[in-house]
Amino acid sequence: MAINGVNDNPYAFLNSTNNSTAKDEERDPGKLQMEDFMSLMTTQLMNQDPLKPMESGDFLGQIASFSTVSGISDLQDSFASFAKAMQSDQALQGSSLVGRSVMVPSSIGVMTPDSPMRGQINVAEPVSNLEIKIYSANGELVRTIPMGPASGYTNFEWDGLNNDGEALPEGVYQFMATGSVNGQNTAFPTAVVAKVDSVLVGSGGQGLTINLAGIGSVPFSEVQEII
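and the corresponding structure tokens:
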């Protein structure tokens, strides 16, 4: 029995349907919307104990709690969409690196007859006798290149010849840069120029990983220069 147009069942709205609102049919049935929340709150107020009415602070607190949860959910959805867009952008940028050369921190490099091994030395303190030593894959010293006085970032290039002026076979070689600092022989950080063979787009915020010829996989964050 209804009194003054109010249904005896205060929860009847939960099972009611309205053909004029297509949006209600399209939204997720498992997700509580703001309209549903307000309807529940209204029903709660209509059926509360008159001797113990809901405090206004409790009422506002429930609304604030729902708004906070709803806001966090919307923010998470926005971040998820942003992450997908960033990943697609990374994939596009990564594809443009394939075939190009980059400079990365390394003590190994690739030498070919058409492309000498190039790199850079970070000479933290000025030295007067900087030199580079090139080693073969089995650890044999094949070339010593005197660089003379140096300070700061110093570029170098190896033409693939050994100490006797003979051409060595192409392949992967190791190198080391040293110089005397305060009378002590000191090794300096080195970087090498390498060709990008492929790019891997990571998941879970891992970012790009580039595969370099002769060196292997290196995080894109370690790239010092794109050549």
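(Above: one complete record from the training split.) The domain at 101-193 is CATH 2.60.40.4070 (Immunoglobulin-like).
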